[in-house]
Predict the structure.
Amino acid sequence: MPPSTDPLAHLVALEGVGSAYAAARDGIDVMLRDRGLRRTSPETTAESLLRGAHASAVLEGSAATLAQVREGEGDEIAQDAVRLSTEMLGLAPQVNRSPLQVFARLHALAANGSLPAERLGRPRDAESAARLRGVADILLTSTEVPALVVAAVVHAELAVSAPFGSHNGIVARAAERLVLVARGVDEKSLVVPEAGHLALRPQYESNLRGYRSGSVAGVHSWVLYGAEAFAAGAEASPLRRGADEA
């Protein structure tokens, strides 16, 4: 068999990565199958998106509670995250075709009112534009490795490169969720990966720092962490009985 041309194939070959992601995907599939795809509704998806928006906002510095967000209250960061969450799934069909447009739209939704109109969806500079093109290329060319791996790498690349003038973490986490939808892992967006990251916040933040370093060990640790975070995101799904709603 000829060597893979997938740009992320080397990550799956790292120790423990293949098995970790196989287990994470199996857990997601079991949750979706056994916990009620037959009884899901738009309201269940909306609840998942709301929980994700709250978790992403907290990771971005918000002090809002989930109860406040559910009531349409909370601080500006929370409101920005909720605004993005209400429209993001409409972008899923474009993720594998026009990822640069998706990134721009995610930022425009999140940062609307925070930045001048001419900066919405625009990279900060030429270097940032090049990094964005690199992330887009991953989505356009990585077709052989598990979709969860692609989602984790897209998330990290957007988070550490911070290509926009604001809201980069919120955009990165939204893009991760969209990859899961667009690549068929979670078409109804019932997993809450943002809540998985919040539940593992110390590991999340330290592993992003490791990824930012660019070292093999740092990237390896982030990818391994991603599998754990996706499993935690499945546990946070509204399909899970007893999932935290506080």
About this structure: The domain at 9-235 is CATH 1.10.3290.10 (Fic-like fold).
